[in-house]
């Protein structure tokens, strides 16, 4: 059942090229110029009437929602807030009939996410669910459902569900942009082309899993480390940090690179590993200056950057290159080495990778 892999998690990491292909599926028209989200019944007028969007989810799905916020804001220019469901429900969120609420849930059964969905509906909002389980509670109660075709996810640590959620956000963002006219046809076509290249690029990254394994064996000796990034790299850093904590039990924190000097820099000492995500090249100069701040205090910096980025390569101790894509889509690639890092660190520590202590796959209690 593990198809020759040692763990479900590793199998599911390797299933991502297929999960991307299946989630993109027939949601792009034959010309390759338009996204066709047939399952979303929102009319053009309803899309025009959206004043704001709330994305609500828990854990890894929440982290997909953080990327979703930047994707939708950039593509469709609609203001988006992303919340964890257990907070959203109790903070009397300002929901109007012009609010679109997007709930994200792999299982479609998470108690807090389901409660947030119900609260949104009670306030008159329209709700889109992004879920991996057809027929789940969330999918039955939402107005529209975008199914992520990742297939069953068995490992407690979510991998292919997260990346399929990112693909769903790209498709939804493009769908909204097409309707609103916020991006021109060339931009949409180029983004679609780049989207269609992702599965093959994930395959290329997976060929270099051994490099990540070696690095993971080094960090398995540490008790604390940091992830830093800017823009969507910061959102992915939070997911990388959660994945590592969850299965390797190594403490880590994800920081917006520019925030370090407002307090956390005090924790940087000789030899501490810092993992810097640097795919957002328009922010490169700033990220490099943050890398210099931690290096000056003795940090060992491992960067993940787009292929051929010499500026990063010369500023850090070790660099892992991922294939080039557009900045918007980089989260769907940069997270792959982070999943492998968590996996191999957990393995090096002799943990039960697929069933980490204290955790359950589906959280149906509040
Ligand atoms: C972490 C993980 C959890 C889930 C969270 C929400 O790897 O899997 O953080 O993402 O419990 O679950 P779903 O998406 O089923 O609502």
From TrEMBL:
UniProt GO BP: carbohydrate metabolic process; fructose 6-phosphate metabolic process; protein N-linked glycosylation; UDP-N-acetylglucosamine metabolic process
Subunit structure: Homodimer.
SIS domain: residues covered: 43-182, 215-356
EC class of the enzyme, as a word: transferase
One Gene Ontology MF term: carbohydrate derivative binding
Species of the source: Paenibacillus hemerocallicola
Taxon lineage: Bacteria, Bacillati, Bacillota, Bacilli, Bacillales
One GO cellular component, as annotated: cytosol
Name of the gene encoding the protein in the UniProt record: glmS
Spans through the membrane: 326-347
Function according to Swiss-Prot or TrEMBL: Catalyzes the first step in hexosamine metabolism, converting fructose-6P into glucosamine-6P using glutamine as a nitrogen source.
Entire protein: shown range: 244 to 609 of 609
Protein name per the record: Glutamine--fructose-6-phosphate aminotransferase [isomerizing]
Active site: residue positions: 361
């Amino acid at each position: 059942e593990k198809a020759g892999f040692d763990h479900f998690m590793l199998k599911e990491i390797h299933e991502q090229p297929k999960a991307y292909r299946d989630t993109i599926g027939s949601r792009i028209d034959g010309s390759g110029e338009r996204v066709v989200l047939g399952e979303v019944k929102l009319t053009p007028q309803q899309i025009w009437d959206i004043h704001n969007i709330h994305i609500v989810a828990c854990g890894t799905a929440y982290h997909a929602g953080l990327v979703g916020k930047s994707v939708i804001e950039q593509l469709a220019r609609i203001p988006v807030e992303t919340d964890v469901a257990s907070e959203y429900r109790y903070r009397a969120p300002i929901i109007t009939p012009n609010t679109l609420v997007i709930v994200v849930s792999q299982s479609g059964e998470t108690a807090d996410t389901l409660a947030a969905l119900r609260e949104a509906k009670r306030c008159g909002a329209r709700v889109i669910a992004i879920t991996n389980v057809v027929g789940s509670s969330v999918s039955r109660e939402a107005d529209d459902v975008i199914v992520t075709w990742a297939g069953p996810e068995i490992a407690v640590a979510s991998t292919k569900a997260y990346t399929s959620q990112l693909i769903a956000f790209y498709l939804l963002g493009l769908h909204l942009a097409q309707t609103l006219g916020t991006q021109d046809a060339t931009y949409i076509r180029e983004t679609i082309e780049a989207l269609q290249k992702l599965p093959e690029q994930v395959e290329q990254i997976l060929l270099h899993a051994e490099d990540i394994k070696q690095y993971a064996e080094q960090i398995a000796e540490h008790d604390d480390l940091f992830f830093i990034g800017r823009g969507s790299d910061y959102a992915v850093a939070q997911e990388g940090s959660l994945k590592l904590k969850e299965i390797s039990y190594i403490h880590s924190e994800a920081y917006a690179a520019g925030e370090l000097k407002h307090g956390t820099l005090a924790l940087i000492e000789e030899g501490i590993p810092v993992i810097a995500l640097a795919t957002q090249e328009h922010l490169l100069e700033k990220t490099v200056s943050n890398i210099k701040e931690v290096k000056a205090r003795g940090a060992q910096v491992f960067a993940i950057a787009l292929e051929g980025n010499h500026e990063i390569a010369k500023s850090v101790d070790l660099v892992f290159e991922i294939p080039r894509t557009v900045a918007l889509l980089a989260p769907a690639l940069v997270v792959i080495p982070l999943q492998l890092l968590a996996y191999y660190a957990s393995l090096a520590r002799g943990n039960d990778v697929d069933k980490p202590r204290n955790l359950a796959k589906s959280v149906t209690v509040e």
